[in-house]
Amino acid sequence: MLDLAQRVVLCTLLVSVYASCPPRCECSEAAHTVKCVSKDLRSVPTGIPGYTRNLFITGNQISRIGPESFKGLDNVTNLSLSNNRISEVESHTFAGLRSLRSLDLSNNQLAVIHPEAFTVLNQSLRELNLSRALYNHSSVMDLATSLRWSSLGTLQGLDLSDNSLIYFPSHIFSHLSNLRRLQLSNNSLVAINNSTFSGLEHLEELDLTLNALKTLPEEGLRELDSLPRAVLLLGDNPFTCICGIEPFALWLNRSQGRIRDAEGLVCAFPASMRNTSMLVVGTLTLGCQQRDAGGDLTLQTSYVFLGIVLGFIGLIFLFVLYLNRKGIKKRIYDMRDACREVWEGYHYRFEIDSDPRLSQVSTSVDA
Ligand SMILES: *[C@@H]1O[C@H](CO)[C@@H](O)[C@H](O)[C@H]1NC(C)=O
Ligand SMILES: *[C@@H]1O[C@H](CO)[C@@H](O)[C@H](O)[C@H]1NC(C)=O
Ligand SMILES: *[C@@H]1O[C@H](CO)[C@@H](O)[C@H](O)[C@H]1NC(C)=O
Ligand SMILES: *[C@@H]1O[C@H](CO)[C@@H](O)[C@H](O)[C@H]1NC(C)=O
Ligand SMILES: *[C@@H]1O[C@H](CO)[C@@H](O)[C@H](O)[C@H]1NC(C)=O
Ligand SMILES: *[C@@H]1O[C@H](CO)[C@@H](O)[C@H](O)[C@H]1NC(C)=O
Ligand SMILES: *[C@@H]1O[C@H](CO)[C@@H](O)[C@H](O)[C@H]1NC(C)=O
Ligand SMILES: *[C@@H]1O[C@H](CO)[C@@H](O)[C@H](O)[C@H]1NC(C)=O
Ligand SMILES: *[C@@H]1O[C@H](CO)[C@@H](O)[C@H](O)[C@H]1NC(C)=O
Ligand SMILES: *[C@@H]1O[C@H](CO)[C@@H](O)[C@H](O)[C@H]1NC(C)=O
User: Fold this and answer.
1) pTM for this structure?
2) How far apart are CA 347 and CA 340, in angstroms?
3) Residue 304 has pLDDT above 80, yes or no
């Protein structure tokens, strides 16, 4: 049997243990870990112990976070807020987490991201997971601004997969000068532009699988060539193997060494080319000559059309002439009469000139 003193000690111990762990959370001092998983929390709980290094507040109903959410958590290196309903992240929300290395915001609904949302004062952040985190494509402008202003020069991994992104504003990643891994899989990217990846000199891995790339024109190829150290993944894009894709196919063959899934890349369209390896497409003719013949055909068609138009104008002209036939007849008669008068006048003068007597008279008069 425990005596009273022992009971009191035990109770105090229990109370202190519970006091140091927020309600609905599990705390393990030995593992430096606090988990508040799927507990219907609507905000970040207070009273998280200072020893915490790994903090999981996942699968709850949290919708807004700001600087006041994370106070006195100097030791947190891994923070996961995935599977919540976070729609707004204020500037400096994570600034006080001076040891933060890995931030997971995946599976949220970020619609408003303030310019310094991801700033961590110590510039310690290495991994940022925004997979399926953006509400829709419109958030990409906010994202670009916060990637610019959050001092993420030490970031090494950025996951933007599963986000329905259609394109990136130019230079969006240009302040992430130490980024090694960029996940863009399962978006709706249709093109890679001139300055999409500018500034990513240290990139080692770029995942573009499951996007909407039909081809990559010279501009996009040049952009990918500006990442010489990066291994690329390009699978599951709707590559369309028609005339014009040859430069891309030749580039693929040339760059096989750094395209990890090169062997598996196949045409998706047209139906006749489906499943054809992209690596052999460069040697096929793809009916480009036919397309040229088609060009000739359109040229011929336009000539025919021009002929028809000219013929039509001619017909109208003739019709107008026909309608005015009386007036024209009259004018022709008038003209003929006028000509006759002129002719007769001339004829008369000619006769006078050719009469020797008359010319002698005139010369003698002149003398
Ligand atoms: C962080 O951890 C260190 C050592 O584990 C400890 O001394 C310090 O008090 C902790 N910080 C906080 C705010 O509790
Ligand atoms: C913490 O994050 C790092 C990446 O920065 C990762 O390697 C590690 O496994 C994470 N630890 C936990 C407990 O999640
Ligand atoms: C800054 O972050 C590093 C880890 O990147 C950590 O070792 C260091 O203690 C932090 N400095 C301060 C002042 O918290
Ligand atoms: C980011 O989070 C998603 C979903 O939680 C996970 O599947 C993915 O592996 C994470 N990305 C990285 C780079 O850890
Ligand atoms: C994103 O959602 C907002 C709010 O519902 C809406 O106004 C905007 O048009 C959406 N943008 C896109 C690209 O769907
Ligand atoms: C792609 O992302 C959407 C959400 O944007 C998700 O519903 C779908 O399951 C993802 N597909 C794959 C293959 O991961
Ligand atoms: C990117 O380039 C494509 C053509 O390659 C163009 O249609 C698109 O408008 C460009 N996007 C941006 C954001 O510049
Ligand atoms: C891309 O950059 C090249 C020069 O590097 C330039 O000639 C071209 O016009 C640019 N294209 C676009 C769409 O901005
Ligand atoms: C293409 O390949 C996939 C799997 O490799 C297969 O399921 C599909 O039937 C193939 N389609 C055609 C048209 O050959
Ligand atoms: C691909 O490149 C190899 C040399 O690396 C060459 O022998 C082959 O003919 C090329 N294939 C095509 C389709 O261009």
Assistant:
1) 0.79
2) 10
3) no
